[in-house]
Write a structure and sequence with these properties.
191 residues
Length: 191
């Protein structure tokens, strides 16, 4: 299901990026000490803790008690709006023009190369039309705010990513329908 894909993506993406960045902030040399220090830093990250707690709780098969679930749900419902406010604040801080060339390159990769690779891999491994269309559609979506939040957390390429988010959001309003039309024609309809 889509929620499983998104959960796995968050788990892998945040963990691996955090490990890579924390490791580069350490000595940069792989020693037992630097590795343990990196792991300690990663597992102090509230996002990583939340992801692993959620995964661990899901294995219990229990539902979350209402007194915990309802406040967390309300906070979660506001997360998208608050994230977009953070992006807007970042754009006002950096301006739209800063790093625009890199933003266009990233946007092109995200909206054209990424879905093409996904489509090619889906065909290569033999996914069906519905599954292929679903994952290509996810690949065609604009750059997510999670990428910007990572950049903010690690103080890297914030302006470039903020611009790329705007570019991919605007351009994807054309590329997503084109991709869906292509896939519908390629598979002869999906119904």
């Amino acid at each position: 299901s889509v929620s499983a894909v998104l959960s796995l993506n968050a788990l892998v993406l945040w963990t691996l990026v955090s490990i890579a960045v924390e490791f580069s902030l350490q000595s940069g040399h792989l020693t037992i000490r630097s590795f343990l220090k990196t792991l300690a830093s990663v597992f102090k990250n509230p996002l990583i803790i939340a992801i692993f707690c959620g995964v661990a709780w899901s294995f219990t098969g229990s539902s979350i008690p209402y007194v915990i679930d309802e406040p967390v749900r309300l906070i979660g419902n506001s997360a998208t709006a608050l994230s977009l406010i953070v992006v807007g604040m970042g754009l006002s801080e950096y301006g739209i023009g800063q790093g625009l060339g890199k933003s266009f390159v990233l946007s092109s990769i995200k909206l054209f190369i990424h879905p093409t690779l996904i489509f090619s891999l889906a065909l290569l491994i033999g996914l069906g039309p519905v599954e292929t269309t679903a994952i290509v559609f996810l690949g065609c979506l604009p750059m997510g705010v999670n990428v910007y939040l990572m950049c903010r957390q690690f103080h890297a390429a914030e302006a470039v990513i903020a611009n790329a988010m705007i570019i991919t959001t605007v351009v994807s309003s054309f590329t997503v329908p084109m991709a869906v039309a292509f896939l519908t024609r390629y598979f002869g309809g999906l119904g």
